[in-house]
Design brief:
It is built from 1 helix and 4 strands; from the N terminus they run ββαββ. By secondary structure, the chain is α+β, with helices and mostly antiparallel strands. The chain has one domain. Strand 3 and strand 4 form a beta hairpin. It is globular, with a radius of gyration of 10 Å. It starts with a strand and ends with a strand. Pfam families: YIEGIA_cap (PF21835). InterPro entries: YpzH (IPR054055).
Amino acid sequence: MSQIVAVVTMDKEKVGGGAPIFIVNDAEQQQKVSFSLEKILDATAHDLKNGTMILVRHT
């Protein structure tokens, strides 16, 4: 079972739901925030290639 634990996006209009959403200004900031959260949350970052990355905890 997998769970989305966070979303990092450059376009807040494209996302919603129950996971925490982090809004960033550019791709560089998105990478930094995603990789930091990846370590903190013990999750894996997945790039959706549309300006949004999801962090998923695989159990």
